[in-house]
What we know:
CATH superfamily of the largest domain: RecF/RecN/SMC, N-terminal domain
Order of helices and strands: EEEHEEEEHEHHHHEHHEEHHEHEEE
Shape: globular
CATH architecture of the largest domain: Up-down Bundle
Structural class: alpha/beta
CATH class of the largest domain: Mainly Alpha
Amino acid sequence: xxxxxxxxxxxxxxxxxxxxxxxxxxxxxxxxxxxxxxxxxxxxxxxxxxxxxxxxxxxxxxxxxxxxxxxxxxxxxxxxxxxxxxxxxxxxxxxxxxxxxxxxxxxxxxxxxxxxxxxxxxxxxxxxxxxxxxxxxxxxxxxxxxxxxxxxxxxxxxxxxxxxxxxxxxxxxxxxxxxxxxxxxxxxxxxxxxxxxxxxxxxxxxxxxxxxxxxxxxxxxxxxxxxxxxxxxxxxxxxxxxxxxxxxxxxxxxxxxxxxxxxxxxxxxxxxxxxxxxxxxxxxxxxxxxxxxxxxxxxxxxxxxxxxxxxxxxxxxxxxxxxxxxxxxxxxxxxxxxxxxxxxxxxxxxxxxxxxxxxxxxxxxxxxxx
Length: 370
């Protein structure tokens, strides 16, 4: 999978930008606040329909303009697709090959991306919601089944929570309806559990290898933690355990007015030599762990989607020392993964890694190939 071209119209500080990419490494150089990260953000929105940065969509639109537009040309296994996202104050519209796409699930996965940013340190240090969101985004790109199941689960979860409140305030309300919702919720939860477990297992096949190559030592793995303890991930084991938990904790959930058990409460953490990296790792170790996690995702996309994802690395060189920068570039240089990097300079970078790269200068929202 390769992104060959992109056009940005009134996207943040990019009034009208056209970029053609090479199939390997693309590097955007510029001072801070010139628009480098905006380009990565636009690519992320083209792929996922939403930004990887915190903020509301109208902020994406250039001041005094009514809409922002992102167009991209994607080559996937010799098939060319023209993708388009338009953002207005009223919302978003999506197109593929000039055809309107109404459902996000029909749009996502036409361009798969893996994004690394300086803010990703929150994946280790932040709330469980950040880590769940990461899993949901990546799995949604890989599996339409996961995306649809996750959306259905959230709708059932909202309905169940609302009905728990009704049961609490109305003694004559019928609990039978709650049992029906719970059964359906469990069915969706089982698929989510199984897909997440499979994904984490795939990550653990390679994460320690990348950590060792970049950091110089090993011992890293990802631990998935559930708030329901079951012995295996087969359908019947999970179903029986969840039914038991919901039955046992009915009064507790009734009093709180919410569903307190299920994959919407789960988490994962990084373990380095049997220690939780959040509490026993340096900031440098944490950053490399996150980068290793992202690199370990690449073969998952390649195997399950039969095409490589697009790797987006924002301000990556400031996150790594000279030796680690060149180790990362060596990996990119030897892989078939199209990579887009932003940086303020190319100091201390081995020139052999730049020979086949496209290098662009970004200044005040304008982009020029060097």
